Amino acid sequence: MLTRLSIRDLAVVSALDLDLRSGFTVLTGETGAGKSILLTALGLALGDRADSGLVRPGAERGEVSLCFDLDDASSARDWLLDNELAEADEDICLIRRTISADGRSRAFINGRPATLPNLQALGRHLVEIHGQHAHLNLLQAGEQRALLDRHAGSRELASELKRIFDRWKDVSDRIDQLQQDASRRNARQELLQYQVNELEQLDIPALDYRALSEEHELLANLGRVSEIGYAQLKLLYEDEHYSVNGLLAQSTHAVGELAQLSREFAETLELLESARIQVKEAAMALRHHLDALDPDPAKFAALERRLAEVHQLGRKHQVRPEELPAHLETLRTELRSLATGEERLEHLLAEQSDLLAAYDTAARALSQKRQQAAEALETDISRLIHELGMPHGRFAVAFETDAEALPAPHGRDRIEFLVSANPGLPPRPLSRVASGGELSRISLAIEVASIAQKTTPTLIYDEVDTGIGGGVAEMVGIKLRSLGVNRQVLCVTHLPQIAALGHQHLLVEKHATDGMTQSTVRALNMDERTAEVARMLGGLRITEQTLAHAREMLMLAH
Q1: Distance, C-alpha 216 to centroid of its chain
Q2: Where are the membrane-spanning stretches (predicted)?
Q3: What pLDDT, on a 0 to 100 scale, did the predictor assign at position 118?
Q4: Mean pLDDT, to the nearest integer, of 213-221?
């Protein structure tokens, strides 16, 4: 539960340190005294958007701190542990939020920096705030369905159904996309198959464009090659008098004579003899290549056609001729991918069918739990609204299931809360028959009826007394007090009947000091409570009779 609320320089609050207890706590004060700033501060600390306009004029920043005792908030303790934000003392949680005058905001959980989503997620385990117009949410179908699920204890099942639906929706969207693309895919597949076949028929996988070009270049210049080649062959070896081989032979002979006279010329002789051998081998290799030249016009023509064919394919596919083999492999890869697209579609269709079966099973189970809970909820809320000043009221839950409907996130049930405020009239939708006061009472009845399913330790109500008064207001106070038996309940109220029933009474007051308005909050003792309840009963003029009435109300309440 919330044990301490501290505020610094926020709106009309300069400094406030408020200790809170378990049970039912009421907050009262004159209109405009600043009661709403307490709820604003709580909202900020639990992740509401920051507004620099909330910082007290003249201050650099505003700050809100909350301290929670986690003895009754096991889910919050688990969340802190899972997110590595638990304090050494795991039974305590400290939340702090600061807002600078320039609009910057920072948040901390147990002294560690935290994000707004962190605050919001943790806050859902700690506090439930019902604003002045929260009862209007009852008019929304989604809120009615959520309340029924909470009463049925089926929120986990509803969450699982939503998870299955989300997966089914994703798979269905992908199937639709694949099916919409089918015609384009088929056309692309036919084109790719034609291109692959064309390239394969022209033996592009075996294409070595560089070797093909070199062979064509050689045959195109065969005459020039022969002319130069045989001239060099004669120069190297075949000219008897002036060939390189002949000149080397003469030099070898001469140096051989020198080597006989001095061993120092032996190395030179070896080099010359090696040169003669290499020249001879070069000449033999040159002759071999020249003899192998085949001036075959048919072969040359075939090479010409092959090159023309390759160049044409390159232009057609907009790639360089030497890139054609790699381009063919790219086309094959895309073709295989399109083929697997059909396999993927079959897989998705099978998955869609499995998900639909799982959805149907979960939806039927959820419908059954909702129907069972609806009957109990009708009985409980009808009894409670009788006690809350609607003696002839009857609450009903209209329940309709369309087993043939497409899956929806919340199931196939259409749920609507109905009410009849007067005898003899059939129940009709809340939006058509319920006044603001009746909605408030029905909302409170639902809260009381579903308290056993709540795990949130702190419940806060802002002016839950809208549109009611007299004996009904007293009954509302009794119900709120009953909620406070197992929960911490805080209620901002203008009604003395409710204020008198609080276990703890806090008074919000506004003062003007040096031209600055400031709100303070203090706990009241019994005499102060009597005076405050009397003020709420009698307005500006407080008589002894009013004070006596206030004392009686407090005595009866306690």
Answers
A1: 63
A2: none
A3: 92
A4: 75
In angstroms, the CA 347 to CA 182 distance is 15
Contact, 43 vs 88, CB < 8 A? no
Between CA 422 and CA 435 the distance in angstroms is: 13
Q: Rounded to whole angstroms, how far apart are CA atoms 119 and 117? A: 5
Domains and CATH numbers, the chain: 1-131+455-523 (3.40.50.300), 186-338 (no CATH)
pTM of the model: 0.60
Residue 304 pLDDT level (bands cut at 50, 70, 90): confident
- Fill in the amino acid letter for 271: L
Please count the CA atoms within 13 angstroms of the CA of 535 that sit on its side-chain side. 13
**Which pairs from 114-119 meet CB under 8 Å and 24+ separation?**
114/85, 116/47, 116/49, 117/47, 118/47, 118/83, 118/85, 119/45, 119/46, 119/47, 119/95
Separation of alpha carbons 382 and 376, rounded Å: 10
Give the C-alpha separation, 190 to 267, whole Å.
74
Query: Which amino acid appears at position 410 of this protein?
Result: H
Quick: pLDDT tens for 441-478. 777 777 667 665 667 889 888 876 666 677 777 887 88
Q: Where are the alpha helices (DSSP H) in 202-323?
A: 209-220, 222-233, 244-261, 266-292, 297-317
The C-alpha atoms of residue 58 and residue 124 are separated, in whole angstroms, by 34
Torsion of the alpha carbons at 30, 484, 473 and 396, rounded to the nearest 10: 130
Please report the pLDDT score of residue 112 as a whole number: 92
pLDDT digits (tens, 9 = 90+) for 162-186: 999 999 999 999 888 777 666 677 7
Q: Output the six-digit token pair for 14.
A: 């300069």
Q: Report d(CA 463, CA 494) in Å as an integer.
A: 7
Q: How far is CA 23 from the centre of its chain?
A: 38
Helix locations, 293-323, DSSP H: 297-317
Q: Strand 92-100 to strand 61-69: parallel, antiparallel, or no bridges (unpaired)?
A: antiparallel
Question: How high is the pLDDT of residue 499?
Answer: 92
Length of the chain: 558
Beta carbons of 385 and 445 less than 8 angstroms apart: yes
391-413 core/surface letters (b: 16 or more CB in 10 A; e: else): eebbbbbeeebeeeeebbebbbb
Tens of pLDDT, residue by residue over 480-532, are 888 888 889 999 888 899 999 999 999 988 887 766 778 888 999 999 999 99
SS (H, E, C) 33-67: CCHHHHHHHHHHHCCCCCCHHHECCCCCEEEEEEE
